[in-house]
Amino acid sequence: MASSLSRATLVRNPHYKRNGLKSYVHALHKFGIGPTVDGPYCMVNQVQQQGSQAILRKYGRKIGGRAHVKGHVLAKKDATSGQTGEVPAQDVETNAEYLAQVGIGSPAQTLSLDFDTGSADLWVFSTSLPTASQSPGGTTHTIFDPTKSSTWKATNSTWMIQYGDSSSASGTVGTDNITVGGLVVKNQAVELANKLSAQFAQGPGDGLLGLAFGSINTVQPTPVATPVENMITQDDIQPNAELFTAYLGDTTENSFYTFGFIDQTALGSATPSYAKVDNSQGFWTFDSTSASVNGKAIARSANTAIADTGTTLCLIDDTTCAAIYAAIPGSQQSTQQQGWVFPTNTAVSSLPVVKLAVGGTLFQVNPEDLAFQDLGDGTSYGGIQSRGDQTFDIFGDVFLRSVYAIFDVGNNQFGCVQRPATGSTATSAGSGTTNGSVAPPAQQGETHHLHHHHGKK
Questions:
Q1: 228-241: burial string, b at 16+ Cβ within 10 Å, e else
Q2: Spatial separation of the C-alpha atoms in residues 40 and 37, rounded to whole Å
Q3: How far is CA 22 from CA 15, 64, 373, in A?
Q4: Of 450, 430, 391, 443, which Cα lies nearest the Cα of 34?
Q5: Counting beta carbons within 10 angstroms of the beta carbon of residue 111, is it exposed (0 to 12), middle (13 to 18) or buried (19 or more)?
Q6: Paired sense of beta strands 332-334 and 379-382, if any
Q7: Distance separating alpha carbons of residues 161 and 68, to the nearest angstrom
Q8: Residues 6 or more apart from 132 whose CB is under 8 A from it?
Q9: Which residue in 91, 308, 393, 408 is the catalytic one?
Q10: Which of 7, 39, 69, 156 could cross-link to 442 by cystine, CB 3.0-4.6 Å?
């Protein structure tokens, strides 16, 4: 099987424009985070009708039952009155930066899907959607048409993803062949969207490729296996290489992912450092009990983090955030931006050396990623922000662009190799993991069986 394995291009969305606050609100929504930095958004208790979960799954709302208080709902404060209301769809980032091209059906229909290691659904825009939702706001999507696939089989299952109170995607489920990273996975569950709220409909992708663990898949009545889990059971990838990898490039680099092998060019001469993964919550969760800023160690007892390509920013605890920005003169918490900002004219060479741990190894965050967005008022929105009341860090793209990431399903571990910082003379990070680069064609690789279990979103 290995002969068909190849690098698969991650397409950088050409329409992507960085917006720090929108990216932050997306993460608040996705993970149900309550902000601890003052700003326009907050968590509120909300009274709503209590109805059966089966009705919620089928109709996307609760019907009947008695009213109850639902806590932890993200709301937006009115700047004038201070009253709280629903978060408008336009406040939430929908513009994914990295899209994976996946062939679905026979013959294959190629769709560009959000590459997301923080969720476990493979859903697509489909002909079941109302016409208005197939090209919302003038955006163009490739729409999967199951009637044009000879290998499509419908099932009686349904699916539904819901973020916060008003943002959801739902539909029906079937199975088909998918082509990803040079592999054909047979009988993969594909979730067809027949209803999308604005937040989902306005994104640039044609759906989502979820690569977390199947225990947080939303298909009912029974969750379905993810593409990686199916690759393993179908022997599409070798027993010593039951993994996938991700290389998220900056604007000048090629981005790619692999299934079933580690790309030797990206690895360079380095040996990956691995951390054991706790997948009990369905995420790629590992210990991250230390950090450092300009060489000064920060102990983070019992701290954990997840690797999530579907989150743009890097979200960590408030104490470590404060230590990082204390090392950048002129930094402040902006209530308008609900996060840390610092002077735009700060030279990259004067930014602090920030390292975060994956297991027992510290990896440096590329200094150029510390400034995420020029806000146009003399300040830049920081790439590292507060995780609020969340109990774990979320290492999103801002962190993952600094490493070559290895998601080893078979050995239940997450590995990293440090990549050189771009555009600066920043020190290389890690205890011995100091290499990595982008380069031309894919090369076959090495490495390592299966695991997963119950979880929640």
A1: bbbbbebebbbeeb
A2: 10
A3: 15, 34, 11
A4: 391
A5: buried
A6: unpaired
A7: 22
A8: none
A9: 308
A10: 7
Q: Are 279 and 412 in contact (CB under 8 A)?
A: yes
Percent pLDDT > 70 in the chain is: 83
Q: Which of 91, 116, 206, 408 is catalytic?
A: 116
Cα angle value 192/195/198 (rounded, 5°)? 120
Q: Could you read off the pLDDT of 62-104 as tens digits, one per residue?
A: 333 334 344 568 888 888 888 888 777 777 776 678 899 999 9
Write down the residue that tokens 């640039």 correspond to: 204
Is 396 in contact with 311 (CB distance < 8 Å)?
yes
Q: Specify the pTM.
A: 0.86
Mind listing the pLDDT tens digit for each residue in 245-286?
999 998 767 899 999 999 999 998 999 999 999 999 999 999
Domain residue extents for the chain: 243-418
Residue 211, strand partner residues: none
Indicate if 393 belongs to the active site.
Answer: no
Domain 243-418 adopts which CATH fold?
Cathepsin D, subunit A; domain 1 (2.40.70)
How many residues in the chain? Answer: 457
How far is C-alpha 329 from the geometric centre of its chain's CA atoms?
31
Cα distances (angstroms) measured from residue 414 to each of 115, 234, 259, 341: 17, 23, 14, 31
Q: Which two tokens stand for residue 190?
A: 């594909």
**pLDDT for the residue 136:** 62
Residue with structure tokens 């200094």? 367
- Which pLDDT score, from 0 to 100, does residue 423 have? 53
pLDDT of res. 457: 35
Measured from the Cβ of residue 351, the count of other Cβ atoms closer than 10 Å reads 22
Cβ pair 429, 255 in contact under 8 A: no
**78 has catalytic annotation:** no
